[in-house]
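Document type: protein sequence-to-structure record

Subject area: structural biology

Format: plain text, a pair of labelled lines:
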Amino acid sequence: MEAELELIRRIAAQTAVRPGVRVGIGDDMAVLAGDPPLLAAVDMLVEGVHFLPGRTPLADVGHKALAVNLSDVAAMGGEPVCALVGLGLPARGGPDAAGVGELYAGMEALAARTGTTIAGGDVTAAPGLVLSVSVIARMPTGVAPLLRSGGRPGDLVCVTG
């Protein structure tokens, strides 16, 4: 974890936050300028790293791929709008059309419960199954995003859903 955080710090140090972006690398989501602000995040699940092929139901993989992003939305106090899905499929040994349907069924079940639209994405060849999900969210009117930098000793942290 510490190596990952150090890598993120190094990447953030060599990239600029330009106009239109209020909060960049290092928080749960990017905060985009607007009234109300928009939020954007992306997370990936990689076969053999985040789930075991053949042992994890594909609907569960799809659910998890969206859920990790929606947890970032919740952490910042936002409301999800849509998700874009990048799907990398192996030429051999990957899910067939029915398996891809299971992945999307897992995502869509959670999307329906949270008012999120799966609005598009991309499909490409990959050495193993990879899902990259980006979520766009908005802040409720008059509410500021909850940033990691705003946490203080003694704050109450709650976990839901």
User: Anything to note?
Assistant: The CA atoms of residues 30 and 91 lie 34 Å apart. The two ends are 25 Å apart (CA to CA).
